[in-house]
Amino acid sequence: LTDTFTLHNGNTIPKIGFGTWQIPDGAEAYDATAAALNAGYRHIDTARVYGNEPSVGRAVRDSGIARDELFITTKLPAEVKDYDGARASFDVTMAALDLDYVDLYLIHAPWPWSDMGSDHREGNKQAWRALEEIFGAGGSRAIGVSNFQVDDLQSLLTSATVTPHANQIRYFVGYTQNDVVEFCAEHNILVEGYSPLATGAILDNEDVTAIAAKYDRSVAQLCIRYVLQNGILPLPKTTNASRMTENADVDFEIADDDMATLDALTDTES
Ligand code: A2P
């Protein structure tokens, strides 16, 4: 939990983040964030659309942990594809979190959720200009994108003055988006993986269970270790305190042949 990756601007980012997607605002998000901090997590990932920024921010403030020991990520709603809207949304986010700055601010998706697959490349360039200014002014210590495919990144890079520091994508055993990962590696963009447990669907997969047993580890631990061993930053989500500790206890090595077996798996969600 204290090991770090380094972003291309030199900032460090704790190697395992605590994901807060689908944790409702209020007591649940507050308690889960507080428990994660208590378990030693120093990297918390939220988003405007998760609706839980107020509780996440309050748990962070109440923790008493020095701000510079924490890494807080949040995201611009995917619907916002214009410069003014992005600037205004960041202000709303900062008021909700009630923090002085965030460590990473991401465009949540290349297309609005209501119109997935639509072409919003021009809008992303406008929103990115706002993020670059937020970064320049210190409102966020790093900026990036989420759910961007290779062509979305290529388009953004044609006008970007700051290369995204990170791209957060869906990533787990059997779903590895290798073309995106390769492109990001070529451009020094850190890849973060959300849903490293396929939102729980992978937990009873027989192939993965068999390999986990060889290492005397849980399926969750094997899956999180797999993500890390591919150089990707996992963001597991749980509201259960003992699972928070379990998910961070991944200091073991998966052998090359087992990595290859895991690489070859498909249909891990069914
Ligand atoms: P819960 O919050 O009840 O612990 P992902 O990180 O891929 O989004 O997966 C999250 C899902 O996996 C949640 O349903 C979460 O349930 C469950 N989960 C997280 N960690 C573990 C674990 N160590 N063992 C079993 N289930 C887990």
From TrEMBL:
Domain of life: Bacteria
Sequence ranges assigned to domain NADP-dependent oxidoreductase in this UniProt record: 15-265
Binding-site residues for substrate, renumbered to this chain: 108
Entry keywords, A to Z: NADP, Oxidoreductase
UniProt cross-references to PROSITE patterns, sorted A to Z: ALDOKETO_REDUCTASE_1 (PS00798), ALDOKETO_REDUCTASE_2 (PS00062), ALDOKETO_REDUCTASE_3 (PS00063)
Active site: 50 (proton donor)
Keyword Oxidoreductase: yes
Site (Lowers pKa of active site Tyr): 75
A GO MF term: oxidoreductase activity, acting on the CH-OH group of donors, NAD or NADP as acceptor
Keyword presence, NADP: yes
Signal peptide as annotated in the record: none
Database matches in SUPFAM superfamilies: NAD(P)-linked oxidoreductase
InterPro entries: AKR, Aldo/ket_reductase_CS, NAD(P)_OxRdtase_dom_sf, NADP_OxRdtase_dom
Homology family: Belongs to the aldo/keto reductase family.
Name of this chain's protein: Aldo/keto reductase
Annotated source species: Salinibacterium xinjiangense
